[in-house]
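Give me the fold.
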Amino acid sequence: MRHRLTELRGPDVRAKALDARALAALAANPGCERRAILDGAGVDKATLAGALGSPSVFGQSQFAFVRGNAFEAKVKADGGTELLRLVHEKLDRSAEPPAAARVPDLSAAGHAGRAARTELALGEAVLAPGEWTLLDHPLLALDVAGSPAFLEPDAVVVHPDGSWTVVEIKSFPLLDGSADPAKVGAAARQAAVYVLALEEVAARLATAPGAPNVSGGAPRVRHRILLVCPKDFSNLPTASAVDVRKQRAVTARQLARLTRIENIADTLPDGTCFAPELPREQLTASVESVPASYAPECLSACELAFHCRDRSRAQDAVTTLGRPVRAELGGLTTVEDVLAAARGELGDPDDPTVAALRKAAALRAEALAGAEALAGTRALAGVVGTAPAEVAPCL
């Protein structure tokens, strides 16, 4: 299978490693076979989008990147005192307040070395009950389609009871205790990936030979993460506990599906390849041979969104109107089919979707007729009001 994925990516093209954002985006659109096979093969979708003539503008601005780093540094200042206070306040009031905390050094050579050092530090923290431990930018390894994906959360906190909490630090504000739901959802999906990776580490600590002997089974990975953001319009940190159980379950299912990408690969025509140096016509044919599931939400999560949007519009697909609309329309997959059903030219009248469309069309026609009649009455009144006195009675 690895040989097949290498052929799809291009023999001379280096695989792009998956990160937490990519895995979270996969979980947000589990029905997109195109993204699944491209990510599974390690294709650089930004480069691919440029080769297709639909360059991506997806990504974080330099200003937002600098602002986010400055805010994160503020949150973690003084050994993470403020960060640990927020963890205690929002997630673990029953524990002793964190007067001080262990902050182990996680530096090591290479990704594999850093991941091993992180795993060792987590094991040591579990074996030191009663203490708070802050892991600043640990590196976690998660098995994805048979290959390790290295993930770097902002922080992981080990509680005095030995449980682990993922901390996500974002630069968007919490206004009166709430934030943009779309941004919170994206942060929750990203944190769910870290939770899955930590659960793999916890399982290894409990069973792997040579790992620290963790009594009582695997350490508990908390499914409520801490989201730290600026308070209102200031630069002061505040936090909210976010339950990521749903996002974790969706991500786990999608990753399990990704390990079976051979099912998608087996349906592709012979010679399919996504190497960016191929002629545009051949590259387009290869991309179009894999079904996509476009929705407007893809514009903020996928580098190929512009290409897929253009194709979706060309096919008159209702998915361009959003997933909720697509879900409501059942078997009507194109805008023309929807309009034909509303006009009574297509569909079973007993189908609830068709019946609702025809009722909506009748109400629309009635409303437009009423509006035209009202406009005619107002126009006539205007003529009467401006006519000469000797003509107005005749009108």
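The longest helix spans residues 352-386.
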